[in-house]
Design brief:
The complex is a heterodimer of chains A (about 425) and B (about 290).
Chain A (H helix, E strand, L loop, with lengths): L1 H22 L2 E7 L2 H8 L1 H8 L2 E7 L1 H13 L7 E4 L3 H7 L20 H6 L1 E2 L2 E2 L2 E13 H6 L10 H11 L7 E4 L9 H11 L16 H17 L9 H9 L3 E7 L2 H5 L11 E5 L12 E7 L7 H11 L2 H11 L10 H5 L1 H4 L4 H10 L23 H16 L5 H18 L3
Parallel strand pairs in A: 1-2, 1-3, 7-8
Antiparallel strand pairs in A: 3-10, 4-5, 6-8, 6-9, 6-10
Helix pairs in contact in A: 18-19
Chain B lengths: L3 H33 L1 E4 L4 E5 L3 H8 L3 H31 L5 H9 L6 H12 L6 H8 L7 H4 L1 H26 L3 H9 L4 H28 L4 H6 L9 H11 L3 H31 L1
Antiparallel strand pairs in B: 1-2
The chains are: A alpha/beta (about 425), B mainly alpha (about 290).
């Protein structure tokens, strides 16, 4: 008898909770565990209070997030109503019809305020498929005190040759100060993002207009040799294992003279609570070789809606909220202007309070110098500055990244690494039918 | 004694479990086989039709294939050699009566309870980091240039990390075997004037034979599919790409399910060759 009663009670409870779930509209969002996204989660309650829409978060590390959302969208799994994706995924998925077009956002949202470089990288055929939450380019972050001690002055737009001289002058290996920290960890979003942007400034590119890989060109050979020589002379030990996070920690500990990386890092290295060198950081544009292209990239973390979700309207409401001017204002009021999501909207850079943030102007300049449609000196058949937005790219670039990482570690010569890279890329492109 | 009746009842009752387990194994296996013959590229729109043996040919002729098989075998062999050698040594030590034996035994088996990802991260960031790692400080303390472990000796470093994880397992199995050894036999040998080394070689080691084969068998099965430690430490760079890692790259990074599935079929074949080979040795050893 008691068993029967217990069963009844359980059934009733289940029914109640199911009914409760059905009443409440709730959306599930997959996102990356970056500081700005974590902050956004803290403000979710305000969104729920405003709209009555509940939000569930799935927060993952960048690589894991990529695999999860890619698997979900290709298998039409339908786990998420909003996905955090980047400039690489958006045009490809948009072209496949996997994302809901964002061409009908409300007038007060002011979609025209989105920086053109960001909107361009998140569109396919002129239609926006994901709204940028924050955008970034890369720039030089350097120690002003070490620069002064070396008797040098950083120009606003330095050449690679100057960077090399300054790096060597600042290096003091006995005291564990290394002139320049650069990405060396293999991965298409790690060392290859940096090296691709760097090769753009040396006149290199990934593919020519017939989709032939270009690692057998002089431009790539110069790029890789310069990079490896520079890192051997003035880089930290074990650089071939360093990615963004490793270099951030080295810089914050005061062990790097210069660091060329994402502009979002500026708020971390100038935060006195996290960085021991917060008061002596200067900023400059990513280096060039006088060919008209700087070694800076362009990236946005953006929110997109997978096609076929039941909660399309609610998802759009959330995207409008999270990427709006009001959200920026909300964060600024609570946590100060240095902590707002940067790089997505033009109006942010016209705000007088934001103009006082030390890295604001250099971030905007860096973003504006990157052009995803014309990233290299020579014309290219692909979209993207530090990547080529084709489905095969991630797989090829990760393998190529491993070759270059091995060359940096001294296990192969730069020439051998380039030969292997050319072979890998040719093999994969041929198999993909280019 | 079971009657005809109860036996068939038992069979009937076992059926659901057997069917479930078979399905559990067969469905993924058949799907892997099916996909390995398809041109399946999720980012290019999904299943693009029949591919014949293209995927198989491409997987084997790729420049990454043989190095990855070699890496897998070195990794498995290296870890087995280290864990068995040190496992025997530790088992003999732990068998000696000593003060605080219980605590020491717990400490020795502790690494086995650490998740592979966590242990790989701890080793990478706290020990092997060439700037901030404990080993780097130690090297500098003695006036030596720190070693960039994961780039200079990447495969050896991974073998070390994995061995650290599996040593407790080997030690435990071997310790049980050591404890089951008849002490009178050893005493008799000692009285006959056998030296410690020959006692070890002629009495202890043969006695451990069975335990060692079990350790080899179980560890090999797990080590062939090792993944987390490589993912966390080197991401497959510097010649640490095993067959499993190569398959992961093909399926998830290159988004080529067909090619990866063909790799998966090769991996199953390789694992079966090793398993048959080992079973024969184990069988011989256990029959004795």
């Amino acid at each position: 008898m008691s068993l029967k009663r217990a069963l009844c009670a359980t059934t009733a409870l289940t029914l109640c909770s199911t009914a409760a779930l059905a009443q409440d509209s709730s959306i599930t969002i997959a996102t990356v565990n970056n500081g700005d996204m974590i902050r956004m989660q803290g403000y979710t309650d305000e969104f729920t209070a405003e709209t009555g829409i509940g939000v569930e978060w799935v927060t993952l590390e960048e690589n894991v997030l990529r695999q999860r959302v890619t698997t979900d969208i290709t298998t039409k799994g339908g786990q998420f109503d909003i996905m955090t994706i980047g400039m690489y995924e958006t045009p490809i998925w948009g072209a496949n019809g996997w994302l809901v077009p964002l061409d009908d956002l409300s007038a007060e949202y002011d979609a025209d305020d989105i920086l053109p470089a960001m909107a361009g990288g998140l569109s396919h055929d002129g239609t926006l498929y994901a709204a940028p939450f924050y955008g970034e380019s890369s720039m030089i972050m350097y120690r002003t005190d070490l620069m002064e001690a070396a008797g040098l002055e950083m120009p606003e737009s330095p050449t690679w040759e100057f960077v090399r001289e300054a790096a060597i002058a600042m290096t003091d290996k006995d005291n564990e100060i290394y002139g320049v920290c650069l990405r060396g960890k293999a991965g298409w979003g790690e060392n290859m993002a940096f090296l691709t942007a760097m090769s753009n400034s040396f006149g290199g590119r990934w593919f020519d207009e017939d989709w032939r890989p270009q690692f057998d060109t002089d431009a790539w050979s110069e790029t890789l040799n310069f990079y490896i020589d520079l890192m051997n002379e003035a880089g930290p030990p074990g650089a071939s294992n360093n990615g963004f996070n490793e270099n951030l920690s080295l810089f914050q500990q005061g062990k790097c003279g210069m660091w060329i990386d994402a502009t979002v890092a500026a708020s971390f290295v100038t935060n006195p609570e996290e960085s021991s060198v917060a008061d002596s950081v200067g900023f400059a544009l990513a280096p060039n070789t006088g060919l008209g292209r700087n070694a800076n990239w362009l990236w946005a973390w953006a929110l997109g809606i997978p096609a076929g979700t039941d909660q399309e309207a609610e998802a759009k409401q959330f995207i409008e909220w999270a990427t709006s001017k009001d959200y920026i204002q909300l964060v600024a009021e609570n946590e100060g202007w240095a902590n707002v999501p940067p790089g997505a909207r033009s109006s942010l850079y016209e705000t007088p309070e934001y103009q006082e943030v030390p890295f604001a102007e250099m971030t905007l300049q860096s973003i504006l110098t990157a052009d995803p449609l014309n990233p290299a000196v020579d014309p290219v058949p692909y979209v993207g500055v530090q990547f080529a937005a084709i489905p095969e790219f991630a797989g090829i670039a990760t393998q190529v990244g491993q070759e270059f990482s091995a060359a940096l570690a001294g296990q192969t010569s730069p020439e051998e690494a380039l030969e292997n890279a050319q072979a890998i890329a040719s093999e994969e492109m041929e198999a993909a039918g280019y | 004694m079971a009657t005809q009746h109860s036996r068939s009842a038992a069979r009937l009752m076992m059926t659901p479990a057997v069917v479930l387990l078979l399905g559990w194994m067969l469905v993924p296996l058949l799907m892997t086989l099916w996909f390995s013959f398809r041109r399946y590229l999720p980012l290019r729109g999904g299943d693009l039709g029949w591919a014949g043996f293209d995927n198989y040919v491409r997987f084997v002729t790729s420049s990454a294939f043989w190095p990855s098989v070699q890496t897998t075998l070195i990794l498995v062999g290296g870890v087995l050699a280290i864990t068995i050698a040190l496992g025997v040594l530790l088992a003999l030590l732990l068998d000696q009566p000593m003060w605080g034996q219980g605590v020491v035994r717990i400490l020795v088996i502790a690494p086995f309870f650490v998740m592979p990802t966590v242990s790989a991260l701890v080793w990478k960031n706290m020990f092997m980091d060439p700037v901030n790692g404990l080993l780097a400080h130690l090297w500098r303390f003695f006036g030596a240039e720190p070693v960039a472990w994961l780039t200079d000796v990447p495969l050896a470093s991974i073998v070390l990390i994995v061995s650290w994880q599996w040593l407790p397992f080997a030690t435990l199995i071997l310790l049980t075997a050591v404890q089951s050894l008849d002490s009178e036999q050893l005493e008799a040998a000692e009285m006959d004037g056998a030296r410690p080394l020959s006692r070890f070689a002629h009495i202890i080691l043969p006695h451990l034979g069975r335990a060692i084969t079990i350790v080899v068998l179980i560890q090999t099965i797990f080590l062939l599919s090792i993944f987390a430690e490589i993912f966390v430490t080197t991401g497959g760079a510097f010649g640490t790409r095993t067959l499993t890692y190569l398959i992961f790259q093909r399926v998830l990074e290159s988004q080529n399910v067909g090619l990866g599935s063909a790799g998966g079929v090769y991996a199953i074949i390789l694992a079966n060759i090793v398993a048959i080979f080992l079973m024969r040795i184990v069988g011989k050893n256990l029959d004795r």
